[in-house]
Amino acid sequence: MGISILRRQTATTAPDLSGIRPLPVWFFLFEGVLGGAYDLGRAWHGAWMILVAIGVVNIAVGATVLRRRAKLVRAMLKKANTRKIAVGLVGLRLGVHLVLGALGTPVTSVAGHLVLAVLMSATTVTLLWFNQRVTFRALGLA
Q1: What are 76-133's pLDDT values in tens digits?
Q2: Cα separation, 117 vs 37, whole angstroms
Q3: Considering only Cβ atoms within 10 Å of each terminal Cβ, which end of the chain, N or C, has fewer?
C-alpha cells in the first residue's frame, strides 16, 4: 500500500513540461535590476520608488504575459541550483563590499555604487539565463 501511494505522488509531482519555451532574456532584466537594487539605492536615495515599480511590473508581467510558462518557473525554483545562485549572489555582494572595505577602499561614491549595480545586474541576468539553459537540458527540452 505504501508503494502505490509513493508511485501516485511521483506521478502527480512531475509536471508535463513538453511544449514549454524558455523565458526570454528580457524577463531576466527585471531580476537583474533587482540584483543591483542595493547599490542603486545607495547611489540614489529615491531609487526605492523605481525599484518598487519595477518589482510590481515584474509581478504583473509574470502573472499575465508569461502565465503559460508558470510550470517552467516552478520547475526552476524547485532546483537546488537556483537557490545556490541566489545565495551565491548575496555572498558575492557581501564579499565584494567586505573585501573592498578590508583593503581600505570601501565603495562610497555614486559612481562606485553604479558600477557595482551594473556588475551585479549583469551577473544576475547571466546566471539566471545559464540556469534556465541547464534546466532545459536536464529536462530533455529544446
Answers
A1: 777 788 888 888 888 998 899 899 999 999 989 999 999 999 999 999 999 988 988 8
A2: 7
A3: N
pTM (two decimals): 0.74
Collect all residues with Cβ–Cβ distance below 8 Å to 54 and sequence separation of at least 6.
30, 33, 34
How many H helices and E strands in the chain?
A: 7, 0
Please, is 1 exposed, middle or buried when counting C-beta atoms within 10 Å of its C-beta (0-12, 13-18, 19+)?
Answer: exposed
Cell numbers representing residue 58 in the block: 515584474
DSSP symbols for 6-24: HHHHHHHHS---TTPPPPP
Neighbours of 64 (CB within 10 A): 8
